[in-house]
């Protein structure tokens, strides 16, 4: 769609006008960090070890380095090199060898150099479900059909447009933070069987997201789609990242933003995000801000 050799994917559709349109949505100057603490979740999921900070006292100041830094430990973007399609390979038909140094393709550095400035649309599915007297069953890992995502947006009176980043609140982070130590350890000890709320990965969901015009989809849960999912079967990661060039964001902290949106009835605003500019990076902390 965007030409041979493209590495930006759907973000090619974000123009200067989209950035300007988003800035015009800022009315109060209220800023919301969408970044969860870099040391959460704890214990880390999928066998990921936490950062170990090593500090050096130089006498006149302090230096540090982070040992074991995992860019996708907490709030994150998945790069177009993060997930492959079982038939077509990585985005653009690339193969594993092309993603590696010295000249990697599809890395997060492509988005980092470009920068993300566009409109966000928040879909507070958790709040909508609670209003329907059907709160989401976080423990069971409930799949959310795309019809309920669409119904949430209708109830909020907002429509998606080309160039938007869709941000979805399932309420997972709020639920996780209510767990005791044993509950958190149980999630970490069975990562590949972990049950987690998320979008139903059906072809209908894929088509709906593509037709909506969104260039990225981020949520406050672990995998965007319901977990566990089949990595070589029908799933959102293969279809959105590898086939459609739509990056996925996970574990974004949306609690404060969602409360503000519910209070003033405005579910859109300016989104900025600055992924780490590391050539060939498979992902990055989100470094995302919402401004209203």
- Fraction in helix: 25-40%
Molecular shape: globular
With helices defined by DSSP (H or I, 4 residues minimum), what is the helix count?
9
Largest sheet descriptor? 9 strands, mixed
Strand content: 15-25%
| Radius of gyration, taken over Cα atoms and rounded to an integer in Å | 19 Å
User: In which order are the strands of the major sheet placed?
Assistant: 1-13-11-5-7-9-10-4-12
The overall pLDDT, averaged over residues, is 97
Protein described:
This protein has 9 helices and 13 strands. The chain is globular and about 55 Å long. 43% of the residues are buried.
In short:
The protein has helices spanning 16-23, 109-114, 125-131, 146-156, 172-178, 181-189, 203-212, 236-243, 255-264, and strands spanning 31-33, 52-57, 62-67, 76-78, 116-124, 143-144, 165-169, 198-199, 216-219, 248-250, 268-273, 283-285, 288-291. The chain is of the alpha/beta class.
Give keywords.
two-stranded antiparallel sheet, globular, 13 strands, 9-stranded mixed β-sheet, 26% helix, 292 residues, alpha/beta
Layout of strands and helices, then pairs:
Layout: H1 16-23, E1 31-33, E2 52-57, E3 62-67, E4 76-78, H2 109-114, E5 116-124, H3 125-131, E6 143-144, H4 146-156, E7 165-169, H5 172-178, H6 181-189, E8 198-199, H7 203-212, E9 216-219, H8 236-243, E10 248-250, H9 255-264, E11 268-273, E12 283-285, E13 288-291
Parallel strand pairs: 5-7, 6-8, 7-9, 9-10
Antiparallel strand pairs: 1-13, 2-3, 4-10, 4-12, 5-11, 11-13
